[in-house]
Amino acid sequence: MCGILGYSGDRQASGILLNGLAKLEYRGYDSAGLAVLEDGEIKIVKNKGRLQALEEKIKSGYDVSGTCGIGHTRWATHGEPSEVNAHPLWSDDMSVVAVHNGIVENYREIKNKLAEHGYKFYSQTDTEAAVKLIDFFYKQEKNPLKAIIKAIKNIEGSFCFVLLFKDFPNEVWGVRKDLPLIAGQGKGESFLASDVSAILQDTRQVYYLDNMEIVQLKKGVVRFFDMEGYAKPKELSEVTWDMNAAEKGGFEHFMMKEIHEQARAVKDTFGSVYHSGKINLEEMNLSDEKIKNISQIYIIACGSAYHAGAVAQYVIEDLAKIPVRIELASEFRYRNMPLDKNALAIIISQSGETADTLAAMRRAKENGIKTLAIVNVVGSTIAREADSVFYTMAGPEIAVATTKAYSAQLIACYILAVQFAKVRGELEGSEYERLIGEIQKLPEKIDEILDEKERIEEIAYKFTNARNAFYLGRNIDYAVAMEGSLKMKEISYLHSEAIAAGEMKHGPISLIEKGMLVAGIMTQKNLYQKIASNMLEARSRGGFLFIVATRGCEALKEEADFIYNIPETDEHFAASLAVIPLQLMGYYVAVARKLDVDKPRNLAKSVTVE
Ligand code: G6P
Q1: How many CA atoms lie within 13 A of 68 on its CB side?
Q2: DSSP code for 199
Q3: Residue 567 — φ and ψ, nearest 5°?
Q4: Is 605 a catalytic residue?
Q5: Rounded to the nearest 5°, which phi and psi values hold at 502?
Q6: CB 170 within 8 A of CB 68
Q7: CA of 445 to the centre of ligand 1 (A)
Q8: CA atoms of 137 and 148, how far apart (whole Å)
Q9: Is there a contact between 89 and 35 (Cβ–Cβ < 8 Å)?
Q10: CB atoms within 10 A of CB 465
């Protein structure tokens, strides 16, 4: 996820771009850059690090005058954060210069094809492949619109490009697929941006681009085209939000915005390794030979990443039949357990900087164990030190309580489970295809659950003054209960515990009081009756039964105080759906208590000390 911008007008573009990028920095900040077109020449300035570094660079003498330009603030997905990988990227003769948000899934194939035509590549980005593909068609067509259309028809993935063409003064071009791009209309000037926050200081008149639509800015003129090249009429809208709401995409908090970004995070994470009908883990250095030789898996993580690992333990063991131990990094690093040399250590971390997780990973490496890191932040310490990396594609997460990064971690784990199972001969071809199909359907099911979020909002208010809660589950549902319970306690400060339902009678049941929130997760058919019995025991002691169950589960239909049904999916992947109502529950209770949802007390997004 990156922030992108375009400007065409009478004012100096660089200042406008810098101001706009500052509003988009929440979308990524590992490098920034801009390009300005003047007198048939495009000047580019870019920098590793935050926008401020770019600002200083421009002030210290770079000549970037011109009234037409594009800008970018980056969240690395392909290639580490560095100046060479920073945007804009350009074609060799600078005919085409572009900034990009999103992922070009088939960039390797594009690069290979272009290499046959003499194109060379300098960066590690997927963007460079796309820019050079547009240049390839531009050389044939001599027309930006035709070149963009031809290139886009050959690009797979979800993306947004904003472009300059050296021979077309005052023009900025843009195109989007699945990711946001808006156009702003000012007097004698026009804008493109990833979201309205970047242009609100200049105009409130915006156009929302449809998918696969192309836009051309020329000073105050904004024109739209479809993929056949025909001009399209479009209606202007007036933005009524204030600046603060705009950065959050109209949501009240980043956490809610990120909850809504989960379908996209899941889709992108899957799309990053799934090409032409196949999962490809070779970039992670996981050849079939290596996968076959894994005798044991240690999953090591903290917090929600640990909870994603707890789900993965059940899924990998059941599908790939490899023994899995899930370890808290803070415990693992100080334990003297005999370690299996043929094991694979899977390290899960959103930030890639958590001190305990890093130390635990180093310990595994010292013991000769191969490490695979599932990490969200490209170029982070864990990503750099691990033997190989599986990047989740959640994009930057601002709210301290993780949602979309957790969901993306689950997908990475499912992919490993399914692929390991296939390579080790534990899955028939058709079953493999079916499971892949089920993973692909998760994003739309996540959105379906979110469509009903008001139901959770209503019930959450009942617990504004609650003091205790239990989250119960068995098997995968227990792992989800852990995450649901953490979401509740970290942002609403309501004391909450996740309990493996079978353990209720060994102590926790004595704590149940009248009206206490007892959440039960029911996604595993063979355990419906077991968990139902535990829930009924809680109910007979006064517990309020809040159930998250797969559609079609009849158990507790009569007895539950509240049931939230989630769509059916393969049971191995049910955590991805069951967690959504639980995230919402934590969120809405915190809102009802008027707490600072995005920055809960005493907590930090990244725990870089022990
Ligand atoms: C902190 C965050 C959690 C996160 C945990 C592990 O406690 O608040 O949301 O799950 O650290 O962080 P990591 O970056 O390693 O996933």
Answers
A1: 27
A2: T
A3: -60, 155
A4: yes
A5: -65, -15
A6: yes
A7: 26
A8: 8
A9: no
A10: 9
* Farthest-apart Cα atoms in the chain, separation: 79
Instruction: Among 299, 602, 605, name the best residue to mutate to test ligand 1's pocket (greatest count of ligand atoms within 8 A of Cβ).
Output: 605
Report H helices in 69-200: 107-116, 127-141, 144-152
Ligand 1 pocket, 409 CB below 6 A?
no
How far does the centroid of ligand 1 lie from the alpha carbon of residue 287, in Å? 30
Distance 164 CA to ligand 1 centre (A): 40
CA distances from 173 to 97, 140, 221, 222 (A): 10, 18, 12, 10
Residue 597 contacts residue 258 (beta carbons within 8 Å): no
Marked catalytic residue, from 2, 160, 302, 413: 2
* Residues 389/372, Cβ–Cβ less than 8 Å: yes
Least confident span in 70-84, 306-320, 469-483 = 70-84
Task: Assign 61 a pLDDT band (cuts: 50, 70, 90).
Answer: very low
Question: Phi/psi at 344 (nearest 5 deg)?
Answer: -115, 130
Q: Of all atoms in ligand 1, which is nearest to the CA of residue 307?
A: 10
Residue 161 phi, psi dihedral angles, 5° rounding: -120, 145
Are the beta carbons of 297 and 324 closer than 8 angstroms?
yes
pLDDT at position 366, please?
95
Closest listed residue to residue 511, CA positions, set 486, 537, 489: 537
**What Rg, from alpha-carbon coordinates, does the chain have?**
25
The 10s digit of each residue's pLDDT in 140-184 is 999 999 999 999 999 998 899 999 999 999 999 999 998 889 999
SS3 48: strand
Whole-angstrom Cα distance, residue 342 to residue 352? 24
Contact 367, 342 (CB under 8 A): no
Quick check: 484 and 517 in contact, CB under 8 A?
Answer: no
The owner of tokens 């993935």 is 157
Between strands 468-473 and 388-391, the pairing is unpaired
**Which of 469, 460, 503 lies closest to 595, judged by CA?**
460
Assigned token pair, 50: 């935050």
Contact between 75 and 114 under an 8 Å Cβ cutoff? The reply is no
Check if the beta carbon of residue 358 is closer than 8 Å to that of residue 330: no
Q: What CA–CA distance (Å, rounded) separates 385 from 403?
A: 25
Pocket test for ligand 1, best of 350, 407, 409, 482 (most atoms within 8 A of CB): 350
> Ligand 1 mean position to 120 CA, how many Å?
40
User: Which residues, in sequence order, are CB contacts of 252 under 8 Å at separation 6+?
Assistant: 245, 591
